[in-house]
Amino acid sequence: MIRFDQVSKTYPNQNRPALRDISLEIERGEFVFVIGSSGSGKSTFMRLILREERPSVGHVYVAGKDLSKLSNWKIPQLRRQIGTVFQDFRLLPNKTVEQNVAFALEVIGKSRPTIGKAVPEVLDLVGLGGKGGRYPNELSGGEQQRVAIARAFVNRPMVLIADEPTGNLDPETSVGIMKLLDRINRAGTTVVMVTHDQAIVNQMRRRVLELDGGTLVRDQSRGVYGYVR
Amino acid sequence: MRAQFVLSEIFIGLRRNLTMTIAVVVSAAVALGMLGVALLMLFQTNYMKGYWYGKVEVAVFLCTKDDTSLHPTTCAGGPANQTRMDALQADLTANPLVQNVLPETQAEAYARYKEQGSGSSGGEYSQITAYVSPDQIPASLRVKLKNPTTENIDAIRSTYQGQQGVEAVADQRTILKPLFKLFNGLTVSASTVAVVMVGLALMLIVNTVRLSAFSRRRETGIMRLVGASNFYIRLPFLMEGAVAGLGGVAVAALGVASFKFFLIDRVLAPSFTFTSFIGWDKVLVTILILIPVGLLMAVGASALSLRKYLKV
């Protein structure tokens, strides 16, 4: 589903590469944690999958396509197959929950009947059935993140990328979010999640990719957050 | 493509940046209005050239009784009589440069003079006509050239200027010179202002779109992430520019129309009765030219600004 082939990324005017010779493959339907301290290259890793950046060296493949050969006007097609969730939710405050989710479908030109059907469905899935008319500021952090997940998932993407989705949430709420992501993963969507949350990684026992200074230092299936040093 | 969605985005955007939108509309209106005035003046100049250059170009004025003292060399023989006039006419007709010659006797010239005087609104002019007698107005030969270039006119002038019975040879186009000068001046100054204002309008549009892109960065960021096409993301901004540009065109059209209505029809036309002025058809043509210019200006500047300030 996602394959990195000897990928290095050096940003302009920087000596040290943000990513150094990364090769890995994430299979369809996998659940992968990406961990590492700040500046270890996690964000660059995500941005390369979304084709927000191009690798300096090497190739990134998503769904069988070489992203470096992807022309600019085809990028939207790629991004329609990837849902994205952020730590800070990124909801539109002047739109209701329903409108926020519908927005993702409106802007890719889906028809009104399709939207009318898909939005309540996905809101039920994330456990927000009946809260479609609320505004983001009327919801708790956990609920807001569920809206963001609903928005990322409403178009049924093949990959869901979550950048510290529990970073702003208390442990109890985080568990709820993780259950939701797990459910989405079990339905067949590949989930790539960047996190600092040790408890979650240790509890879920899924594949762990650890980055350190731009290098992949660990690729462990059923891994835990870290060794006690 | 959801038209309703795009439309609502446009108007939200325009309302959010209301002051900038007004600035854009006004500067675009002034720019386009000046362009329109320049175009109208260009039309008018060409129109007058066609109108006048097809008519009489050179007038050979004959001596009157007063000229004996004023022009002692050529008018020494007193006022030119019919015989002299016929001789000059025959001579001019035989000239290869001349197409035809139209004689105007003193009586005819006096009648035309009085008619023009009565048409004028100024009381001063009619007071003068009362003291002018027919024998003070010179008879003339109106000469139309085959090819009215400046050289040919000069050639005719130098040939007949010194002849007996000829008071003066006048290039009729010189009487139009002030008017041509006025219109040329208007064209030049209007186009200068237009150029400056177009530059100003472009900068304002670039900035407005930049502000708009900034205030909607949250939306466009999400649109980008969920895979909206570049066109779809940019369209509301481009349409914003287009709507503002069309607003400018509308105001400019009003300006051009009032220029025709107030300045040309009410001021210029009554003051310069000897020539006619462009009609509303040319105003319409001007407005039809302004529409694509305004649209192109606004959409072009928006697109440029988006390239720079909206990452897709």
UniProtKB/TrEMBL annotation, chain A:
The keyword Cell membrane applies. This is Cell division ATP-binding protein FtsE. Keywords: ATP-binding, Cell cycle, Cell division, Cell membrane, Membrane, Nucleotide-binding. Part of the ABC transporter FtsEX involved in cellular division. NCBIfam families: FtsE. It is found in: Cell membrane. It holds the Pfam family ABC_tran.
UniProtKB/TrEMBL annotation, chain B:
Residues 192-311 form the ABC3 transporter permease C-terminal domain. Its main location: membrane. It is found in: Cell membrane. The keyword Cell cycle applies. The chain crosses the membrane at residues 21-43, 186-209, 242-263, 283-306. Pfam families: FtsX, FtsX_ECD. It comes from the Bacteria. It is a multi-pass membrane protein. The keyword RNA-binding does not apply. Belongs to the ABC-4 integral membrane protein family. FtsX subfamily. Forms a membrane-associated complex with FtsE. Part of the ABC transporter FtsEX involved in cellular division. This is Cell division protein FtsX. The gene is ftsX.
